[in-house]
Amino acid sequence: MNEPHRLRWLAMFVFTLASSLSFIDRQILAALAPAIQSEFGLTLAQYGAVVSVFSITYALTAPLAGMFIDRAGLNTGIVVSIALWSAVGVATGMTTGFMGLLVCRGALGFAESGNLPASGKAGALYLAAGERALGAAFGQVGISIGMVVAPVLASGLYAAYGWRMAFVVAGLLGFLWIPLWLVTARAIPRAHEEKRGQAAGLGELVRDRRLWGLIAANILSMTTYSLWMNWTTVFLVKTKGLTQDEANLRFAWIPPVFAALGGLAGGSLSWRFAGAGRTLPRARLRAAGLASVALLGTALAPLAPTSGMATAVICWSYFWTVAFSVNTYALPVDYFGVERAATGVAALTMAYGLMQTVLSPFVGSMVDRHGFVPVCAAVAVMPMLAWVVLRATAGEARAAA
């Protein structure tokens, strides 16, 4: 191990831009959905299939992407991934109907499944061990930037050039990122040597109970994240009587900002706890435990008397969910070492994707029948259960060498 370079956070910032581009490519479809549905004559069921094929492909191919990045190396892995998803983005702007759109979104899920594993690998290589949860928070910052930029970029380009140009421009931005990263990677030395091709096979990992604990914990803890990412606008419309535009323009953009802040807070907490003499895994578990207690407040969201107060509860929930998440995503490197960082993070990516595929239809059904009160009460306790699972499967919770 070398001394972490003074410009290591610049490297992480450049990698954060890849996460932003990834979410811009994803969210542009949602921003332009009415125009695309109108031109192609898509039913809501067909649009739902287009959304689902991305999530399913993303989840199922994430482990393969993680193993590829560990074996081929970070630079090769992320360049291949972003080149593919950028090409798919451009191709999406040239589709002529439902089947073309379906194929493109499936291909986008496959290509983007390498983004989070590569981000985890970058944090493992460039940062000191105690900084990795904070490094994971940079990925959330990138996601938040992408979520804010996507609708603005899409609306501006749609008004001037039509919806197709938005996909083309987003894809071209990805191609521009590749030389930026390669120059950065050449200029900033890594703290840890990358041993390509020496990562252990999937069989060894699946026999480790800590991996299954991480997968189960991520499924449980990220239910709150999935709830607010997909249902905030609907929640405000149904429970507070707002119009869609009122909900989006006045309130729905605020919680993602707190998600990014929560990631930074979660990383800082585990860093501080580790400085008090705990091992890194124990420090991360302590930070996650604190977040799980705070997340019990999620149950109060439907009971808030005003839209502003309800949004404040959502912000609180988003903040602590991501504070929990960044510590979960740092644990695979602690447990399995730098050489298997991408594979470990990919397992969590797969878990989240599969959970989201199942959760959204369930939430919709529950809200139709009973409203948001039981939904928010149920997801409020999930992070606490996730923390129990992490503690039960951690063993002595010592970091890998």
Q: Unreliable stretches, pLDDT < 50, 5 or more residues?
A: none
Q: Can you tell me the CATH class of the largest domain?
A: Mainly Alpha
CATH topology of the largest domain: Growth Hormone, Chain: A
- How many domain units? 2
Amino-to-carboxy terminus distance: 11 Å
The CATH architecture category of the largest domain equals Up-down Bundle
Count of individual beta strands: 0
Helix % is over 70%
Shape: globular
Q: Rg, please?
A: 20 Å
Brief characterization of the structure:
With 401 residues, the chain is mainly alpha-helical. It is built from 16 helices and no strands.
Written description of the protein model:
This protein has 401 residues and is an all-alpha fold. The chain has 2 domains: 1-187, Growth Hormone, Chain: A (Up-down Bundle), CATH 1.20.1250.20; 204-394, Growth Hormone, Chain: A. Helix content is 82%, strand content 0%. It is built from 16 helices and no strands. The radius of gyration is 20 Å and the shape is globular.
